[in-house]
Amino acid sequence: MRAKQSYSANRIDHLIENVTENELCDLAELFKVFGDSTRIKILYVLFHGEKNVTEICESLDMNQSAVSHQLKILRTSKLISSRREGKAVIYGLADDHVKTIIAMGKEHIEE
Amino acid sequence: MRAKQSYSANRIDHLIENVTENELCDLAELFKVFGDSTRIKILYVLFHGEKNVTEICESLDMNQSAVSHQLKILRTSKLISSRREGKAVIYGLADDHVKTIIAMGKEHIEE
DNA sequence: TGAACATATGATAATATATTCATATGAACG
DNA sequence: CGTTCATATGAATATATTATCATATGTTCA
In A, residues 57-86, which contact B (CB 8 Å cutoff)? Predict the structure, then answer.
């Protein structure tokens, strides 16, 4: 996991300078991944540490197949990473951007 | 528009403590709004200042009706605000979270 | 090896979403 | 007041997405 860091207004302005149309489409694809309650619940569960699929299913009280399908989407977007440990596959957050993005969202809806 | 501010790791951790299931669903709804290329292009155009509907249509090279439908979704989510000025309706970003959220997304896809 | 457990995946059906077309609303101005 | 310009909206269609069911793959261990 990357080191945590702060995001100043200048840094933000610099990041969003000159974004191409293709990059905007990629961004939309990324946010689409956050835009589903099952997936965001999975991410939130993983905020508190790594979990295997069965544990994630129990946390969400959801069908294993539905969860696995969504895990695949999260993996493809590189929001989570996985490793096998015996019979189980352990999932965890890929980096801290996930937390930051969700925190920004939360702050928005709180207002 | 709100004053700009920094987001420290501690602040982020504090924001995402104890998020309820309902809040997670609201978050998913919010991110769903960012998860469409038309809408994110509209937001990006508005980064550079207020614009009326015709100008937004020209920037995106898109049909007025399609743009208006998406503007409505952005308005409902309070990501943009609008005011009438004569015949035209002027749209602008509602607050700085939009920029921050998109900057975080961009940083993620850059890696 | 084969039984039991854990996870992934393909196909399907139900639902949601975006764009288009047609039209309505609203403002300005002769 | 009627025409023109600007924007909004409803209905319909096309497409995308999600959850479920059935089943396949992969791992452990007797």
Answer: 78-79
Collapse the DSSP code of B27 into the 3-class scheme (helix H, G, I; strand E, B; otherwise coil) and give the result.
Answer: helix
Helix (H) / strand (E) element for A9: namely helix A9-15
Cα-based angle A61, A63, A66 (whole degrees, multiple of 5): 120
What is the greatest pairwise CA distance in chain A?
47
Q: At what angle do helices A97-110 and B97-110 cross, to 10 degrees?
A: 170
Structural domains of chain A sorted by starting position, each given as residue range(s) with its CATH number in brackets: 9-110 (1.10.10.10)
Q: What's the distance, Cα to Cα, between the start and end of chain A in Å?
A: 30
| E strands, chain B, in order | 51-52, 80-85, 88-93
Q: B23-33: per-residue pLDDT in tens?
A: 999 999 999 99
Chain C nucleotides with an atom closer than 7 Å to a protein C-beta: 5-11, 17-23, 26-28
Task: State the average pLDDT for chain A.
Answer: 92
**Which of A48, A59, A108 has the highest number of chain B CBs within 10 A, making it the mutation to test binding with B?**
A108
